[in-house]
Specification:
Blueprint: E1 5-9, E2 22-28, H1 36-41, E3 46-52, H2 53-58, H3 60-69, E4 73-77, E5 92-96, H4 98-105, H5 112-119, H6 127-138, H7 150-161, E6 166-170, H8 187-201, H9 206-209, E7 212-214, H10 217-223, E8 226-227
Parallel strand pairs: 1-2, 1-6, 2-3, 3-4, 4-5, 6-7, 7-8
Length: 230
């Protein structure tokens, strides 16, 4: 395995890895602000924002932090090439539309689409939430299934785009944990998506798990990935 290591930031409060040199950082939504100190220490580090169209358009912490850090690349879920996202800097933009972002996830999990479909049964805090989720996907067609959370999606991207690298994860627990910033009106949806992640991490293929490292013992035990002392 190559010496280059990749860091993935999520939105839970967690101490970043120490004494590890990273070549690239993937950060979900507003957690991109955690990249600030790393970019000051290393101007050559590649910073990639992973977010959804709704977050970059309507979530104030995400918009503010992305415009402050000015990542070289933004990967947008549920987006399209015609979206007018309000950023004040130039960057590469990669779009996954509603369907392609869901299809992209299937190769990482045992049983593929079946696992993704079953995972949506875990979304929501009550039966009404689950019914509404399925009606929106199939009957009203307002939204396709999302699949994993954006933090987990960032892990999948890091694994896929850096196939010979170790992936270090910070701020992703797949538990009902607090965020390091105040959530907007979408907080209820965010705090139930973790159940989907918790189901799917157990079905992540071993070829991916063996390259993931975390200094969060609870996450490492849950996900069956490598634990290291910070």
């Amino acid at each position: 395995m190559e010496n280059n290591r990749i860091l993935v930031f999520g939105s839970s409060p967690q101490e970043a890895p120490k004494n590890v040199k990273f070549e690239k950082i993937y950060a979900s939504n507003a957690s991109i602000i955690k990249c600030e100190n790393f970019s000051k220490l290393n101007n050559n580090i590649e910073i990639i924002s992973v977010t959804t169209l709704d977050s970059i358009l309507f979530d104030e912490p995400t918009k503010k932090n992305i415009n402050k850090i000015k990542p070289g690349k933004i990967i947008l879920r549920r987006g399209s090439g015609n979206n007018e996202i309000k950023i004040d800097f130039k960057c590469d933009l990669k779009n996954f539309d509603k369907f392609s972002q869901w299809e992209y996830q299937k190769k990482f999990f045992h049983f593929g689409r079946i696992s993704l479909f079953l995972s949506e049964l875990f979304y929501g805090s009550n039966f009404k939430d689950k019914i509404k989720n399925f009606l929106n996907a199939f009957y009203f067609k307002k939204k396709k299934f999302l699949g994993v959370s954006t933090g987990f999606f960032a892990i999948l991207l890091a694994l896929d785009e850096n196939q010979n690298s170790e992936i270090y994860v910070s701020g992703i627990t797949m538990e009902n944990s607090d965020h390091f910033y105040k959530l907007s009106q979408k907080s209820r949806r965010v705090m139930t998506r973790y159940k989907v992640d918790k189901f799917l991490i157990k079905l992540l293929k071993n070829e991916y798990k063996k390259r993931i490292f975390s200094n969060n013992k609870n996450f490492a035990n849950l996900a069956k990935v490598n634990y290291y002392e910070n």
